[in-house]
Amino acid sequence: MDTDGKGGVATSKALTWVLIVVLAAAVAVGAWYVIGSRATSSGPPTAADLAKTRYDLPQMTTNLAGGSVIQLSISLQASSDQAKGELELRKVEIQDAVNDILHSWKREDLDQPQGQEKLKGDIMKRVNELLHNGRVTQVYFPSIIVQ
């Protein structure tokens, strides 16, 4: 037993403070985990969210290199409402850029699925060079006819 009678009380107070600090740290870590998981659990955007930032260009018909003709519809997925607004304002510039790209492509280039994917990439790159507010994250061809 403690001879001066004070050691037991001091040890008890120190142990209480250690428990309080450990408990506070555990609560802080738990709160950080819960708040962090809520922020990241929003999941992928819904179809409705994507539709709000999708911009459809008017259907285009133009010549390909080699004399073939292409008719296609293009939908551009914008990264934000602001980017979609800029796509609308730059419609003519975008159509001109797409025409320039298509004029360098041949029918044979588009006959393969990987050719269409490369064309989408070329269009996305060129359109993103035009944008100042946001970017295009995906290019879709709802319809494409090559003759």
UniProtKB/TrEMBL annotation:
<dbReference type="GO" id="GO:0071978">
    <property type="term" value="P:bacterial-type flagellum-dependent swarming motility"/>
</dbReference>
<comment type="function">
    <text>Controls the rotational direction of flagella during chemotaxis.</text>
</comment>
<dbReference type="GO" id="GO:0006935">
    <property type="term" value="P:chemotaxis"/>
</dbReference>
<keyword id="KW-1133">Transmembrane helix</keyword>
<keyword id="KW-0969">Cilium</keyword>
<dbReference type="GO" id="GO:0009425">
    <property type="term" value="C:bacterial-type flagellum basal body"/>
</dbReference>
<keyword id="KW-0282">Flagellum</keyword>
<dbReference type="Pfam" id="PF03748">
    <property type="entry name" value="FliL"/>
</dbReference>
<protein>
    <recommendedName>
        <fullName>Flagellar protein FliL</fullName>
    </recommendedName>
</protein>
<dbReference type="GO" id="GO:0005886">
    <property type="term" value="C:plasma membrane"/>
</dbReference>
<comment type="similarity">
    <text>Belongs to the FliL family.</text>
</comment>
<keyword id="KW-0283">Flagellar rotation</keyword>
<feature type="transmembrane region" description="Helical">
    <location>
        <begin position="14"/>
        <end position="35"/>
    </location>
</feature>
<keyword id="KW-0966">Cell projection</keyword>
<keyword id="KW-0812">Transmembrane</keyword>
<keyword id="KW-0145">Chemotaxis</keyword>
<keyword id="KW-0472">Membrane</keyword>
<keyword id="KW-1003">Cell membrane</keyword>
<dbReference type="InterPro" id="IPR005503">
    <property type="entry name" value="FliL"/>
</dbReference>
